[in-house]
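Researcher: Go.
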Amino acid sequence: MGMQTHINEDRNMSEYLYNPDILQKLDFSKSPAVFKPKISAANPGAEWMVVRPLQRADFDKGFLHLLSQLTSTGNITRKQFDERFTQMKMSGGHYVTVIEDTRSSKIIGAATLTVEQKFIHNCSLRGRLEDVVVNDTYRGQQLGKLIVVTVSLLAQQLGCYKMSLDCKDKLIKFYETLGYKLEPGNSNAMNMRFEDPS
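Model: Structure:
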């Protein structure tokens, strides 16, 4: 009985947020991004690197620490992480994709694709790119390009009619090299922030 519980816990921790097989099917030749040398989600360029969906076990692999290099994450407990993971998986439309350094079992890059269901464009889907981050000690290895192109191609594979993002002015040129464009008359980002409910 104890052994079965341990096996179920191990399976639960290795549970993916979404099916990882879809990443192996992405065609990087469809992206305008230039990789030197050529890399992809299936072949990220080093044997110790893997591109995959977020797993429950990534709580212990530094996922939240990585996100804290981007913005404030708060003090998220294992229970909170598991609950949010379950909510995201059950509701669908959340594709948190990570890059893991398997030598150290650490998450070194991440990006989120959120898919919105629309009535417009024939009940189409729209993708939103969020929370793009690469560990500062791994920068300069094309990992930012790799994670953004991966989730962008994933959006296309899922049938999104467009992919949108908000970024700082200094990152516009980077995203333009990956195929994103400022749309004349439609390049403003506006937000309404609310007080923390806690």
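Model: The mean pLDDT is 91.
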